[in-house]
Amino acid sequence: MEKEKIYVIKIGGSLIDNEENLSKFLAVFAGIKSKKILVHGGGKLATEMAKNLNIPQELNNGRRITSKETLDIVTMVYAGKINKNIVAKLQSFQCNAIGLSGADGNLIKAEKRAISDIDYGFVGDVQAESVNVELLENLLNLNLVPVFSAITHDQRGQLFNTNADSIASVLAQALSENYNVELLYCFDRNGVLENAEDSTSVLKNLNIEKYEELKAAQKLTEGILPKLKNAFLAKENQVAKVFLLNESNLHNHINQENDGTEIKI
């Protein structure tokens, strides 16, 4: 029997920070007929709030080191303000969305990132086994559209800041046993570029060998590396299709399924 189609779609800060573009995107997302899940990052709001409160922010390789004070801010902003704003907009497009963190219904359990050279603080790492698939499928079967913020928990009372690209990947992996999953990383580029300075140099496909070649030549921007790491992880774990594409091209992609860069293994 053919598996039912589901989209897991991740959006980032460039879209969240632009009210007009976000509304256009969500209108297209709401119109997708298949089952769907949205995962969102945080945008600039948490950084701005931390600055206003004089809470220093530290990044390492594009990843936020999360102190107790920063965790409070990102929880309020990601799981609160941004998540509920997206849910409200989707409701206005007759899309019955439900806003979630990993703590809700024990949907995504995380473990604190191990300390090696760097202590990332209250940052949680996740894997496919972290996902409460049974509850997630029950929500989907109620025709609800889950909207996940990048906040998880350890089931011992501790919240964690978690990479949204990772959350999208593990959700896609966890659902791949019962669904035909298509994972879309939507961002402000047309896909993976062979030349970061040339927006037309989009690679139609990207496999591990080409990825390693581009990485070694330092042709990949810092921001795209977590996406690609998680995209390959998803593809290696039975996710049917994985794409990186421009957030403004979602409609074309859904209708033609040929936009952006497809991840191959």
Topology:
Blueprint: E1 4-11, H1 13-16, H2 19-30, E2 35-40, H3 45-52, E3 58-60, E4 63-65, H4 68-92, E5 97-100, E6 111-112, E7 124-125, H5 133-141, E8 145-148, E9 151-153, E10 159-161, H6 164-175, E11 179-187, E12 205-206, H7 208-216, H8 225-236, E13 241-246, H9 250-256, E14 261-263
Parallel strand pairs: 1-2, 1-11, 2-8, 5-8, 11-13, 12-14
Antiparallel strand pairs: 3-4, 6-7, 9-10, 13-14
Could you explain how this protein is built, in words?
There is one protein chain. The chain is α/β, with parallel strands linked by helices and 265 residues long. The protein has a single domain, classed as Carbamate kinase (3-Layer(aba) Sandwich), CATH 3.40.1160.10. Helix content is 37%, strand content 22%. An eight-stranded mixed sheet has the order 5-8-2-1-11-13-14-12, with helices on both faces. The mean pLDDT is 94. It is globular. A hairpin with a 2-residue loop joins strand 3 and strand 4.
Rg calc: 17 Å
**Strand portion, in percent?**
15-25%
Number of strands: 14
Here the CATH topology equals: Carbamate kinase
